[in-house]
Amino acid sequence: MHAGRGVERRRKRDPLRPESGLGAVRCDSSSLAAEPPRTMHDLHPRQQVQSPVPGSDPLHPPAPAVNAGGAAPPGIAARGSRRLRAAARAPFGGVPGPFHARHRDTDFDEHVTPLQERAMRAFWWDGFWASGSETVVLNYLGLYLLAFGASNAQVGLLSSFSSLFAALAFFPGAHVAETVGHRKATVLASGGGLARLALVALALVPFFARGGAAIWLVMAIASFRGFFAYFHVPAWTSLTSDIVPAGIRGRYLASRNIGMSICALAVAPLAGFLIDQYTGFHGWQLVWMVAFATGALSTWAYARIPEPPPHPPAAVSAAEPAERGFFGDLLADRNFVAYLASVAIWNLALQVSGPFFNVYLVKNLHASSLWVGILAALPSLSALVGLLYMGRMMDRRGTKSLMVVCGLLIPLLPLAWTLVNAPWQVIFINAFGGALWAGYNLALSNMVMVMSPPEKRARYAAAFQTVMLAAAFAGPLLGGYVIDATGFRAVFLLSAGGRLAAALVLLKFVAAKAPEPLRRPAASPVPA
To answer: In 366-454, which ranges are E strands?
Structure first.
């Protein structure tokens, strides 16, 4: 009874406690002294300039009431509260997603401004719709060529031409990004405009040509698309690094990639169904129009991104001539050169076999187009599971760590293909591979941002993409030759060995130079 009266007296004296739900809250220095201080990263950005009010924030409940047995230890209560908040946030809590949310809180002192949040919402939807378009191109362009009667070597040549013209686009794209600016306009005009109009041209090919003429026409359209689909990548990389704060980049990109996997999961089987459902080339034409429609929605979403100003050092760098020159700066960075070597080996090994898995399914295992679509969608499904915690792992452990772990396991995938003798067996390979590729691609998309100085990010991205696609140009040519000479299984073994070698080079010789995640001091000002 005495304890109860004491609590009641303290409640009446407490100036921070409102008399009712509509009562005004009064704050003075004596009331602040009675409240244990919180660390800066425990507070929402808007709360950091105000006095915390016990009981008003569901994420920060008031301390437990004192009872006759004594007060609860504040250390245990604080640790329990932090664990509950961490569990509630995992894996994407506090990261802007596709829909507007009133409350954002991150645990890396990396607070998102309203401008960044609006940009990241639009960027999320851009990735969602773009995935549908790219899934069709990735899984069905080679089979489209087979429908006109192409050989294995011509399928390899299609992939090589696309990669060659893409590689030729990067340094001009980087020059435009660094000198002209207008990064968003560059992305919309090239990748969001001309590259997606090429999908309509693919749908029109059966109206104008068949047989050998159609094969070469498809190759020409694919090369045109390859150039403009990658011309914008340096500008895209530079803009992405400004939109997404480094401290939450892993979790945000994982959330975005989950949306992309969901869209791919729906579009890939739909495309296979349409091809099987309609005779002749009518199904193919519908598929390319579906790819164009989803691509157009992606362009619309990207157009809604508010473009931030260039990074201050980038503006200074653009005004002053480079001391070493465009390529000299890249070659002087030995760590980045070692990374480019690992990228070259990896993509050469990847593209030796990459264009031929679906060809092997159709020609050797007699899979239907619907089977191809189902198997293509399966990695997107398993990627949803992998991405749940890989983004958070990248923020915690670092980009390189995630990339190395996945890179050492991925060589098992082409090795497993040497044992396949029926389409259903690929289910297990793609289910395992989807989670691994989700982590690897997540790290790959961030590695250049980590390793490059902000004022030179466009040229670093251009060098990375050029080396990657130059290897992708040579890979299918080599793969087509090896298949014609020795068969598919030799190509799968060659690909597995090359991927393992590239992962070991990354592990041994490459260091992620920038600290991850980037933290700001607790006393730094919080953006409005």
So the answer is: none
- Please give the Cα distance from 229 to 196 (Å, whole number): 8
Distance of CA 512 to the CA centre of its chain: 18
Angstrom distance (rounded) from CA 474 to CA 518: 37
Contact 166, 469 (CB under 8 A): yes
Other residues' Cβ atoms within 10 Å of the Cβ of residue 34: 12
Characterise 309 by phi-psi region: left (phi > 0), alpha (psi -120 to 50), beta (else): beta
In 3D, which of 183, 286, 166 has the Cα closest to residue 231?
166
Signed CA dihedral, 326, 328, 333, 336: sign only: positive
Q: Is 280 left (phi over 0), alpha (psi -120 to 50) or beta?
A: left
Alpha-carbon distances, residue 472 vs 66, 245, 349, 395, 468 (angstroms): 68, 31, 9, 29, 6
Separation CA 338–CA 505 (nearest Å): 8
Composition of the chain by helix, strand, coil, percent to 5: 75, 0, 25
pLDDT digits (tens, 9 = 90+) for 17-52: 333 333 333 333 333 233 333 333 333 333 333 333
Three-class DSSP category at 18: coil
Distances (CA, A) of 473 to 140, 354, 359: 19, 12, 18
Residue 89's nearest CA partner among 56, 38, 37, 42 is 42
CA distances from 245 to 109, 257, 512 (A): 10, 17, 17
Number of H helices, E strands in the chain: 21, 0
The CA distances from residue 279 to 181, 287, 299, 446, 502, in Å, are 47, 13, 31, 43, 44
| 342, 510 contact by CB (below 8 A) | yes
Are 115 and 305 spatial neighbours (Cβ–Cβ below 8 Å)? no
Residue type, 104: R
Residue type for 321, please?
A: P
| Cis geometry, peptide bond prior to residue 321 (ω within 30 degrees of 0) | no
Radius of gyration of the chain (CA): 27
Can you read off the two tokens belonging to residue 102?
A: 């009133």
Distance CA(358)–CA(381), nearest Å, equals 18
Q: Is the pLDDT of residue 197 over 90?
A: yes
pLDDT exceeds cutoff 70 at 431: yes
Report pLDDT for 126: 93
How many Å apart are CA 389 and CA 292, to the nearest integer? Answer: 32
Name which of 39-43, 56-60, 266-270, 292-296 the model is least confident about.
39-43
CA distance 128 to 264: 8
| CA separation, residue 376 to residues 26, 284, 298, 480, 497 (Å) | 60, 17, 21, 22, 24
0.90 exceeded by pTM? no
Q: CA 518, 521, 525 angle in degrees (round to 5)?
A: 110
